[in-house]
Amino acid sequence: MKDLQSYMAEVIEELKRNEKFPAVHIYLCTCNSFTKFCGSASMPLHEVFTPGRLKEYENWMMQQELSLNTISTYMRTLRAVYNRWMPPGSTGHNPGLFNGVYTKVTAQTKRALTGRQMRQLIDADLEQLTKEQQSVLAYFVLMFLFRGMPFIDLAYLRKRDIDMRNGRITYRRHKTGRQLVVQIPREALPLLKTCKDNRPSSIYLFPILNAEPHDDWKLYQCYQDALRSFNKSLRRLALRLLPGVKISSYTARHTWATLSFHLGTPVGIISQALGHSSIRVTETYLKPFEEKRIDKENRKLISAVTKCKLIN
Asked: For the chain, which ranges sit under pLDDT 50?
């Protein structure tokens, strides 16, 4: 009987061969988390996948004060492993095994900045910041200006992706492979000049990834290191420019989507701009804001009725 560690190792190697590196990262994190929970990931699969064991793992993660989305991610990863080991419809498969644990996805609406806060960052005086802070702020603002571009796509941008003559950047989303064309706003030009990697040896537009030759998995690990460093530096920068406000690499993307929505931009346009795989993804993304908008309209209606402003 295979244990969880060896079985997940097989899955991870397959994901590597298929170059699904974000999934590799999640599977590794899940395996490491479960190892910490039980002291060893060598537990037989039939002992891992029981309602009691999964509930114990969920309770342990809550005690570790992990976010609900992190708990959901690890549980959904284990569910994928279970379905691979025990395919739905096969003898012994329990379709309700994960019903008792948290597998939902909670929208993180609090990550978005207000328009005023974003303006503060755009107007910040770079000369008052260190070289590292200048780069961190420039990357954050560029992600916002480039229609909420994710940090991974910014990091992987190549010099050949940018056409300064026509003022456009053409690239493929790392997550979906979808090609996007972004017009370069004039506000981005000085930031591009400040941050551009001018080393002839580097194929990348910005000095975020290590340009030395290595395989794709090592390059992705380099990106993960860069992401952790960026978020750490971004938190320190926020303490100086936006005291009391928590921001991360995702904040630029959430802010662009949120402000666009509040300006009345159609959801379909926002979906295309973000490069989402479907409009349903965007609708889920913006659902909390839609509910707030409906509540606001309801409040207006109630006020109109109570103040006798309605005709008929």
From this structure: 311
